[in-house]
Amino acid sequence: MAERMLLMLSVNGTEITREVPVRLTLADFLRHELALTGTHLGCEHGVCGACTVLVDGRTARSCLMLAVQADGAAVQTVEGMAVDGKLTPLQQAFVEHHGLQCGFCTPGVLATLTELLETIPDPSEADVREWLSGNICRCTGYQGIVDAALAAAKAIREGAAGE
Amino acid sequence: MKPPAFSYHRPHTVAETLELLATLEDAKLLAGGQSLMPMMNFRYVMPANVIDINRIADLAGIEERGDALAIGAMTRQRDLELSPVVQRCCPLLHEALLNVGHVQTRNRGTIGGSLAHLDPAAELPAVLHAHDATLHLRGRRGDRAVAMAEWSQGFMTPNLAPDELLAAITIPLWPTGHGYGFAEFTRRHGDFAMAGTAALLALDAQGKVERVALAVTGVDTGPVRLSDAEAMLLGKAPEDALIAAAAETAAISVPGLDDVHGSKEYRRKLAAVMTKRALLAARARARSEEAAHG
Amino acid sequence: MSWVGSRVKRVEDPALLKGEGRFVDDIHLPGMLLAAVVRSPFAHARIAGIDASAALAIPGVHAVVTHADLPEAFRQPLPLLVPNPAIRYPVMQHVLAKDAVHFVGEAIALVLADDRYIAEDGVDLVVVDYEPLPAASDFRKAAAAGAPAAHAGRADNIAAEFAVGYGEADQAFARAAHIFKEELFQHRGAAHPMECRAMLAHQDTLTGTLTIWANTQAPHQLRDVYCRMTGAADDRVRVIAPNTGGGFGSKVQTYPEHIATAAAALLTKLPVKYIEDRREHFLSTHQERDQLWTVEIAVDGDGKVLGVRGSLMHDSGAYLPWGVITPFISATTMPGPYVIPAYRMKVTCVFTNKVATTPVRGAGRPQAAFAMERLMDRVARELGLDPAEVRRRNYVPADRMPYAVGLTFRDGSPVVYDSGDYPACQQLALDRAGYDGFRAEQASVRAEGRYLGIGIGSYIEGTGLGPFEGATVQVTPGGQILARVGSSDQGQGHRTMFAQIVADRLGVGPDKVTVTVGDSGGVAYGIGTFASRVAVNAGSSAHVAAGKVREKAIKIASHLLEAAEEDLDLGDGRVFVKGVPAVGKTLGEIAAFANGMPGFSMPAGITVGLEDTSYFTPQRSTYANGCHVAVVEVDVETGGVKILRYVTAHDCGTIINTMMVEGQVAGGVVHGIGNALFEWMRYDDDGQPLTVNFGEYLLPLATETPCIEQAHMQTPTPLNPLGVKGAGEGGTIPAAAAIAGAIDDALRPFGVKITQVPVTPEYLLDLIHKKS
Fold first, then answer.
1. B273: nearest CB among C637, C695, C703
2. Which fold has domain A4-80?
3. What are phi and psi of C307, to 5 degrees?
């Protein structure tokens, strides 16, 4: 019943080797095996987006991946964003623009916006909303998130230009 | 909502996969996981064996082969969407992909997974049906090529035996300058279509319809070609009235589907409207291409 | 400067943004068991037997707990917390089903295992022998004589009947120039916070203290229910609400699962955690909004309202955990911001074999606003008046404040609108929306075959219900300022809000105030976070407590500095002599003094500790108000509706933090958009739910949501020291009404009239085709 398998992957830059049950989802692996509880489960059927993480730089629903499928992959979670406790420009924009309330959907939203800003450095509001359509937020009405994303894009562009 | 126990298999070649399919009882292929995994989390599907085909390198890829596009079944939807080759020579597929779920699901979801899952309201089967695509199956009992028209065998039932693997899709390409349009109605962005139409249109030098293909999704167990509408349009100038009349046949020729989002009657009406809109978009593009080359 | 009124950045944010929040499922205790729940697949059935042997045989399954396995104190229904004489059958749910189930999803047994995966394997193997019974599903049918009984043995399904009103409604109708009647239907939806319910119970074997971590909106209520059922002393039970991922009403209730999880922890002597999954949330977390209104309005020739009367039928679901609160709020909110000289509403609450209905964001008010605003739009249409003008003629004018409506609210106090300027609020919304210029735009795009419309939704909301909420403010000898507040936070930013309030009183920055919320061990008594009541009740308590600490600090400093109190001032964490800021004592030094020295008597008149606990008790509700304007475009070929603009103007009294109020309003509006266009919890005739995932039940996404443009008015209420009114639910209340009005307006050429929400595209296309 409880078939297990060895898993080697990188999570937030740290190499990890674990033996896990093959049916364990990536989300539960992160949360309960690695105690990276910033990744949240909101629906477990791939719609709400709360569990979204970056797998090899691309967003993925961690509730729809088996942990063993991430073998050899580089996974980034919300815990891997801030450096030495300092918020990234994207995270800081969430503070400034009230991009979160309960914070439950936020880790997934941050993953989505990280990929968005890497793909489209100067997104329109429509771009932001389209990408965000894969993340449900029940608190903010999306308004603060959209504002934060646009502000972060600007801050990152200006930061890059200033370097 | 945790998946039930199963045995996990991770083949690295097609041959290995076919061997597993032939020998394992109650096995399910795990492609992008965007449909199978939710069903397993809900425990609607409880396979004894899961065969993960994500590690088979030669199942993914996009290649232009003369007047056809060959796509590996494990090609991610997002890779197709971003592919310059797809955008250039199969723009209908590109346009439809923008309506398939969300970036986050397209990153994992595959074209083959969508075809094998065969949700009645999925976008990609309609596009491939309009394109007269061919599906290439591999099996220990021999390989098969199945025309898209023969793919759906009923509700979520593709023409795929339990020991077969959908390996690739070839899409015959339309001439440069063809018109295309994809129109669908959804309650929200990224939802499955309540009705959606994929349209391809080529005009001759006189601006008459030289070739047309129309396929509708969301209105039957699988995608439906609108052959009556195609026949009405062929050889004629695609004026507004003709397009409207042709589109209206969709409301009659598709059966419709009932679910919580709408009745079959409503979906049939939508099918006509979406067909009209897809055709108008296709006409505008076909004409603009003519103008560009004329 | 004052921190109250500033856009203070939230103290909650950095941890949540770094993934360092602490939600219930993030807590791991050694030896902890994970629970999964066996739930009824039938809407109504007798349970003839339960066989758990196959489940118990699974390695890793530790126990299966059924009703029969529970200690005796737990083998009873949960108490009805809000009784009302109108209730005919006070039927409450058992902790675990006793011998019958009354809705799909009713909890029957807990399977306890090493992890949730194994627990779910166990659930699959628990065999329950059901004898299915006929079910009451649609409440309109269930109310009729001869309908299947939702509870076998009852003569009918009428849970409660009552009427509210004032004035002579029938006389008003007899002399009216016009009478218009509507039948309006609003569908069931759910709160759907992104975090489902979660709880973890653990009894310390040494002390016997039971700790329950739960994402509840009412930790003290959960404690009190547990103690009431078991007879436990309330200092033996502690309920902690850690980070909570939204609530929107659904987490107010004490649920059977809370008590069952606690019982399982006692039985196994191990920590037991239960994390509801989304499917369970669809089945067993309370819902709201199914109501059928049959209402009439009487107006004079100028469209001035003479009276409103009618009947309201409410789907209670299978049990009455919150009594008749929701329909009572609906019926007493109906008059809204208008002068309604006579009013009468008969209310019938109906049992059905569906999960119970209790307040969800708005709590019965969205339905009332929908009914009243639809009537206003009807009057406008029939009399050929602008909808804004009809409302203008009927608003309670500002110079009639305070305005006694004539009704008694749910707290037993008279409904009195304490303050506000409703006509001005509407004008603010209209100006912001460019209402006067809209008609030209509407006409010009209609020439292109596009159908745009504008709609108005106005509302009042009784907020800040009592009885009280408590706050303790304490200064430690180390100089830390601590505030402990009993009510819990579900993401609103309460810690930031309380820090602002306390900071103002103690002359420090909000970053110097450490706030703890949601711990029944922190404040002795508490009620909960609902009814837009926390800023009013707990905010006022924090204000009062911090003020007392300030007074005491000055009093002690006066003693220490040998200076008169009136010569002292407080700022920057110190009490100092006015004009001589170098002479003073820090709050920490003062606290150290107040904490005493061993063997030394306290000076006369100085009590122990630099702290105070206050319980603010409002005399009655304070009324917030607002006006929303929606602009929509309707696709007349598909019935699709797109919201192009959404403008709100509202008045929640003194604004403590504009940024957070705007967040509350925007989130509330989008919930209302969900109710207006998307969210519909559907059941078949057998009571089987048909929408049990996020592909079937549609929450609004960022792509369907417009920018919410907001304008604020601030009319402080005289009913509390801060002048605040609630802001949490107002965004939701008029949204469906405004959107329905806008759709009607867009489709005037077709004569369409919306009478139910959500407005699905099929429903709308049918209306368009019927009329054209």
1. C637
2. Ubiquitin-like (UB roll) (3.10.20)
3. -175, 160
